[in-house]
Structure formats: structure tokens, C-alpha cells
Methylcobalamin:coenzyme M methyltransferase (Anaerohalosphaera lusitana), 356 residues
Amino acid sequence: MDDITLSKRDNIVRAIRFDWPEYIPMTFHINEACWEHYPAEFLEELMAEHPFLFPEAQRKQARPELEQQVPERVGRPHVDPWGCVWETAMDGIVGTVKEHPLVNWGAFASYVMPDPAVTDGKVGIDWGEISSAIEKAKSAGELTVGGLIHGHTFQRLVDLRGYENLLFDMFDGHVDLHRLIEMVERFNSEIVRRYVDLGVDMMCYAEDLGMQSGPMISPEMFRKYIGPVYERLMDPARQAGCIIHMHSDGCVRDLVDELLRDGVDAVNIQDLVNGIDWIRDNLTGRVCVDLDIDRQDITPHSTPANIDALIREEVERLGSREGGLMMIYGLYPGVPRENVVALADAMERYAFHYSG
């Protein structure tokens, strides 16, 4: 780490552009729920002992997740700005929509979408504060990032109508579905426009489209209803020279060609559910892989040695000196402490596998 000369921003850009980064960008995200599950001292010590992953954690009290006001609370259903009623089984973990505001199309005539000037679709936002934060980050030479809320289009439609209803709408070509899609796109387009006007380096489009063995929507229906919306939402950012970052959990192998045709620069997909070999054979060299490290099998249930082996294998199979690989791990409750430490150790170690 002493030999690092590039800023974090420049190194990320080089990794995405296949322009010989100094190291593999690694992100270790601690979910808010972890602060209720693990002793705070354990997480604070983890951050302090891994300065490469947590460069901001110079003070013992640095606990950024605790500063966020999260609406997900057990026993306290909350209504989002779209009118969806959510419930969760664990504080800090996104739950499920229990009441869909447009489960009956009869409610659509009087339905009003939220105002993108004051909300991102989940919580209230202040664009003045966002602008100031972006300018501060630019002044500090940091990567500036904007993006749509997770679940911005397909999942938003599911939240509004319900999953089965939405699929039947698509199959039937329901006339109101087109109007609803246009409304959701109009909201998202305004969010994109504002971030592009603020001059961010990267725009993120996060949406879970996959299940364990395949996508939640067929490629045919995706091409008909969702793909064109994605393309229009990405176009202003692409025209402005932004890096385009796409995310989806689940198995999305059948949709990858549809996603990447829109000029995506980096794609964040899960490792084991899609298959390391499949990712290598279909994505490496074609797009920067922002690899989402397993949270279902090895990291919560195996050993530190196997965790180290997994990270090494993924770096060796998917990485190169030229770049094209980033990695991210999301820590959630339930992972043994020794495995948490092993993950952080391995991510710091193998970030420099191709360095020097």
C-alpha cells in the first residue's frame, strides 16, 4: 500500500477503463443491521485494522452507518413516497411490500407520482445538500457518483402492482401499464438529469432482476418493456461522458446481453449464482466486472481458509494487470466473526495480486 501513487478515484476509473490500475478496487460495505447484531467494538476494530478498506475510519467512533436514518424497523410498517407499505423482519434490512397502491387499476386515475425535487423515491432528499457534497468531493479529487434508487424501474413496477399482476399486465399488454411505465420513467429521468447537471463521474443503475436460477422477467418481456426504458435513462449520462454502472443480484445470465447492449461500462453481479467460469467466459475483457462476493454459501457457512481461497480464485480467474475487475462484499448479520475478519484480510491481500 505504500507504493500507491494514484488517487482512489483515478484507480477506479483506470480499472473500469482497462487502463492499468495500481490495484483492484475493493469495497467492504457494513449494512446498518450489523451494528445491532455484532458488538460495536468488533466492527470498529475491524475497520481500524483494515485501513485500505476503511480509509475514513481513523477515529474509533467512525460508524457511518449509524448516522443514517433508515426506515426499516421491525413492527413499524412504513409507507414510501410511492405509497407502498413496507414491513421488515430485521431492523435495517429492506423488507417486502405488503400493500401495493395500484394492486387495482381503478386507483390509477387519481394516483400522483412523488416529486423528484424532494425525494429519491425512498426518502426525502435535499438537492442543495447533494450539490454541495458533490462539489466537496470534486475538490478533494474523489470519484463523484450519482444514481437511481435501487429497484428504480422493474422493481418499482412490481412494488406498485404486485409481481404476478405485473407479469400478467405485460403478457396481456394492458393499456394502463404503458402509462405507468411512462410515469416511472419520467420520475427517474428527472433524477438522472439532476445528477448529470451536477457533473458526476459515474451514474449507477441498480435493480435486482435475477432469482437463484434465472431472471425474474423473460428476455422477451425485458426487451419489450424494460430495456428501452433503461436505454433512455442511461443515454443522458452516457452522452455526458459518465461511467455507466449497472447492478443486479441473482442469476442474470439470460439478460446480460440485453443489459450490456446499452453501453454499460461496469456490471455488478453476484459470483457463485452466475458462476465464476461463466463470468470469465462471457464478461471478462468485455466490460468491467464489479464482482459481488458470495453472501449465501461460503462466507457465512464455510471456513476462513475457504474464504481466502475463494477470493484468490476469483482474482486469478477474472482479474488482469490491465484492469477490468472490482470487488465488493456486503456484510449482513449471521456471518461468523472469524469469517468477517478473513474476508477483510483476503480483500486487502489480493487487491494487490497484480501490483508490482
About this structure: Strands lie at 26-30, 78-79, 85-87, 96-99, 145-148, 202-206, 243-247, 266-270, 288-292, 325-331. The radius of gyration is 20 Å. The CA atoms of residues 212 and 290 lie 19 Å apart. The chain has one domain: 8-76+127-152+165-350.
